[in-house]
């Protein structure tokens, strides 16, 4: 029998993620799952048909490790159009099996034992284990509601001569902030002053609302050669199960990330790559319509929650909105609230404290609004007494 002490402690000691725990609780309680971030529609039919056609009539053997040339060209063209970012598709673009693999390839390409890596809490759950597996040391910065913004003091407290990289998620899940240029220029200044590589998780780049514009950090002056940009077709097209990620970086960075990718997944399903290449070439109207549809769903859930007495924090992007329970005087934490509503009201949500390793914010709950109207309306009906029933 294997001794537990011989297993990799970085992973062996990890608990079940809150996303899996709450999704299982949703299944066990026949609850509506507004916790995990996936839509409840099948995604754009024309893109799905393109994938089906590529399966039946296209190439189904190993594609290029770096990704189909037509997809790499489509990614470069897409970012050139939307962000004015000029990329060489053959030396600065790589396709991976999802955004998480893209982030893993980037982290393992950059971080060596003893390197410090700045991360902002709330933090996506894959970052810290992969940093530690590489031998890196996370330096955690605590962001706070309601604005979740960066400032000079917090960066000054963590950047130093040992800082090798910073992981930056924008738009930020779970707090649904789209960072303005001022914050990006501040972060860029510290990256340049301390010779730091920025690994930018920008998978929500197209999911922004109310005229908030996503600005890739790689486009800020001085950041072109020191930024690894990560994107996700799953988020862009609401096809989260497809797991098609993008890595964009200057050639010296991308070459090493590609060597990591070679030994993680090596390559990615060619039919899905072909369909994503088709999707990235769609007109601006598609992307603007997608945002409008999600804005309507966000506003529907926001109005409903506010009518029930929940203090909703404005969502600027992503599939999520957050509620700050602190003004309500409830005798419970965000985690206790989430377990209570999945059990008693048959609605699953995610406590934002799960995105913190140190000094968590314990009053904020995340709901996913990328659902059909009837799903949101039923969830709101079930939650109608959730606040009143727990006041002190």
From TrEMBL:
Domain of life the protein comes from: Bacteria
A single GO molecular function term of this UniProt record: transaminase activity
N-terminal signal peptide: none
Location of the Aminotransferase class I/classII large domain: 32-383
Name of the protein in question: Aminotransferase
Keywords linked to the UniProt accession: Aminotransferase, Pyridoxal phosphate, Transferase
A Pfam family recorded for this sequence: Aminotran_1_2
Gene3D superfamilies found in the cross-reference section: Aspartate Aminotransferase, domain 1, Type I PLP-dependent aspartate aminotransferase-like (Major domain)
Cofactor: pyridoxal 5'-phosphate
């Amino acid at each position: 029998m294997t001794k537990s002490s011989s297993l990799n402690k970085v992973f062996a000691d990890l608990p079940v993620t809150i996303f899996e725990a709450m999704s299982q609780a949703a299944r066990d309680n026949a609850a509506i799952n507004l916790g995990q971030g996936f839509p409840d529609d099948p995604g754009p039919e024309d893109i799905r048909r393109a994938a089906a056609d590529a399966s039946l009539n296209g190439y189904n053997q190993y594609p290029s490790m770096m990704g189909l040339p037509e997809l790499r060209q489509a990614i470069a063209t897409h970012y050139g159009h939307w962000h004015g970012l000029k990329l060489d598709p053959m030396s600065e673009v790589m396709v991976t099996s999802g955004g998480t693999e893209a982030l893993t390839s980037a982290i393992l390409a950059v971080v060596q034992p003893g390197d410090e890596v700045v991360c902002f809490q709330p933090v996506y759950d894959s970052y810290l284990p992969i940093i530690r597996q590489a031998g890196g040391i996370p330096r955690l910065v605590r962001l706070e509601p309601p604005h979740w913004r960066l400032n000079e003091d917090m960066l000054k407290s963590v950047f130093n001569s040992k800082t090798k990289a910073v992981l930056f998620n924008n738009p930020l899940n779970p707090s649904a902030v789209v960072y303005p240029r001022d914050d990006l220029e501040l972060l860029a200044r510290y990256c340049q002053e301390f010779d730091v590589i920025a690994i930018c998780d920008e998978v929500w780049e197209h999911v922004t609302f109310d005229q908030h514009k996503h600005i890739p950090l790689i486009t800020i002056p001085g950041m072109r050669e020191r930024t690894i940009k990560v994107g996700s077709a799953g988020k862009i097209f609401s096809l989260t199960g497809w797991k098609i990620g993008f890595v964009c970086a200057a050639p010296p960075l991308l070459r090493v990330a590609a060597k990591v990718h070679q030994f993680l997944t090596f390559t990615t399903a060619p039919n899905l790559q072909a369909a994503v290449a088709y999707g990235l070439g769609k007109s601006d109207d598609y992307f603007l319509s997608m945002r409008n549809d999600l804005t309507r769903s966000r506003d529907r859930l926001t109005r409903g929650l506010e009518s029930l007495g929940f203090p909703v924090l404005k969502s600027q992007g992503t599939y999520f909105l957050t509620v700050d329970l602190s003004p309500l005087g409830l005798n419970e934490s965000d985690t206790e609230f989430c377990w209570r509503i999945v059990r008693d009201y048959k609605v699953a949500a995610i406590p934002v404290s799960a995105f913190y390793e140190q000094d968590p914010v314990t009053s904020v709950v995340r709901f996913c609004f990328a659902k059909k109207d009837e799903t949101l309306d039923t969830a709101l009906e079930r939650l109608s007494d959730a606040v009143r029933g727990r006041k002190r």
